What we know:
alpha/beta, 11 helices, two-stranded antiparallel sheet, Aspartate Aminotransferase, domain 2
Amino acid sequence: MNAEPKRIPLVDLAAAHAEVAAEVEAGIARVLATCAFVGGPDVAEFEAEYAEFTGVAHCVAVANGTDAVELALRVREIGAGAGVVLPANTFVASAEAVVRAGARPVLADVDDEFLLLDPNRAAEASGGPMPVRALLPVHLNGQLAPMGALRALADARGLALVEDAAQCQGATQDGLAPGAWGPAGLAATSFYPGKNLGAYGDGGAVSAGDEEHARVLREMRDHGSSRKYVHARLGFNSRLDTIQAVVLRAKLRRLADWNVRRRAAAARYDTLLAGVEGVRLPRTAPGNVHVWHLYAVRVPERDKVLALLAEAGVGAGVHYPVPVHLQPAFAELGYAKGDFPVTERAAEELLSLPLYPQLTAAQQERVVEVLVGALSRL
């Protein structure tokens, strides 16, 4: 009797750990020996290494990705009375960070092809009754929003441009990484464990092109202080702990290779799923080097398909089934169902298939076999 096929997870963190385990264990032992638990040398080393990796002058490591977005807005003095345009198709943390900074989210729909912030919709939103002071494009699933058009819009209207790059470590557009779009570029990222560059807990960073912005960010993440017991401004406790920096340094050394392997897996899915009726494949926008944080297809009756995949041991996932504007926490923004039709349709159709650097061709073939079978049962 044949054994049941082994379950294929959406993300395999254990497989990633196996590749870095020895290096991480040695680094943690070093931290324990020195007791440099907060702000130890590994944090500064990681910041320098990540800045070199992205090509952006400064990296300021913080406690998590949500703090990173908030701090990036605050360093541009985006606060009370300011509107911030961001896509409706995003994780709630993007809008949450705007509110925490004291500003107000102004949502705009995404394009139907790439599901990224639509510059035309962003222009409409920024010209509404709410005084808008910033654009917050969100780089989703591993590729950048259309930054050339958004940069031009920001420049034309005198808006700050802050990027939410939580899903895009290693991605570029026209050769530029998040945070490199102008001398005062700012991009927030997250090192939540499931990200392409994931810690073993929470973590985040802001990439900053401007030295003064980086200096202020470093003060703000540490209670507004650059010298013990001297507090130049109001700040936060948002420091990356040293053990997380150890993990991130080990993984960063492998990130370029891991991203190559993700691209290969995405290309294999493209081939396996080509011509499958009922499946709309994700695409890479012009100029983008995609790092495939997620491989999200669009299918009919998504929830039924998801259940059938789970029944067969395939750990597919759904991201953002309830858009920001329909979340109870954001009811006071005054949006209603139907306001952002592309986002709402995508929320009903998107299905993320297993994707990680260690995913094998045989596993992908099994995923596609189960998916095709599920669609045939609708």
